[in-house]
Design a protein that fits this description.
Pfam families: ECH_1. By secondary structure, the protein is an alpha/beta fold. It is built from 11 helices and 9 strands. Helix 1 packs parallel to helix 3, helix 4 runs parallel beside helix 5 and helix 9 packs antiparallel against helix 10.
Length: about 270
């Protein structure tokens, strides 16, 4: 354990970002928001990284914003207004950076993921949870509706499930988060790291340039009307079809051999 608030390790084309404020339940202080954003942007540009995993040290994944830091800001002349605005702006910037990152991002969740911590899970492309994980958007319980977590939550679970979480503030267990669609898989706590690594390595074995194309297209089309989404997806697929990886992949399938994917480079980087 070090004093660094985010630890980075790379294995088999997968980068692991570990939030490292266990004493504060990995709450998203201003420094944590800035550091996670910087890491996501840098790893998105790294040619030797195909997948990113976000996990955490300590008893829980992330308890949301640092309420002690926010409370201390109320002592300022503007009662914390400028600090609150900067915090929410940096949080939104981080969540959008995860979505716009050209690499798939996987949340590896144990313990609690509440408020902006739940938002972080919802913002990731995929999530694997331990069976001891619990999720909540509990702001309503302390007079602060989880409005920014609502943005990510409402885009990843059904409307009624999102409203139930937002209006009650109740903690939901991992199996209910799976039912809601907030996470992809629930495993025992002892299996969490291995299950997350297996998923990350499976994705990292795909054609990396194709992953870039696919993730960008997914988020682009999902906000469009149906007709526009099909027009956009059709253009993307045609462009993808003439890429060397599509030619190699289809050829390998026809010839019943393993494909030989191009590594990421300046030319293939998104």
């Amino acid at each position: 354990m070090t004093d660094d608030i985010v630890l980075e390790a790379r294995r088999n084309k997968v980068a692991h970002l570990t939030m490292n404020r266990p004493g504060a339940r990995n709450s998203l202080s201003m420094a944590m928001l800035e550091r996670l954003h910087s890491e996501i942007v840098d790893l998105g540009r790294a040619h030797d990284v195909y997948v990113i995993v976000i996990n955490a040290n300590g008893p829980g994944f992330c308890a949301g914003h640092d309420l002690k830091e926010l409370t201390a800001a109320r002592a300022q002349a503007d009662k914390g207004l400028a600090f609150f605005e900067e915090t929410m702006a940096k949080c939104a910037r981080l969540m959008q950076a995860i979505v716009s990152c050209p690499k798939p991002v996987i949340a590896q969740v144990h313990g609690i993921a509440t408020a902006a911590g739940c938002q972080l899970v919802a913002s990731c492309d995929l999530a694997v949870a331990a069976d001891n994980a619990r999720f909540a958007t509990p702001g309503v319980n302390i007079g602060l509706f989880c409005s920014t977590p609502m943005v990510a939550l409402s885009r990843n679970v059904s409307r009624k499930a999102a409203m139930e979480m937002l209006l009650t503030g109740d903690m939901i267990p991992a199996d209910q988060a799976l039912q809601f669609g907030l996470v992809n898989k629930v495993v025992t706590a002892g299996e969490l790291e291995a299950a997350t690594n297996a998923l990350a390595n499976k994705i990292a074995a795909k054609a990396p340039a194709t992953l870039l194309i696919g993730k960008e297209a997914f988020y682009h089309q999902i906000e469009m009307p149906l007709v526009d989404a099909y027009d956009h997806a059709s253009r993307v697929m045609v462009a993808n079809m003439i890429e060397p990886d599509a030619e190699e992949g289809i050829g390998a399938f026809v010839e019943k051999r393993e494909p030989n994917w191009r590594p990421l480079s300046a030319d293939t980087h998104g």
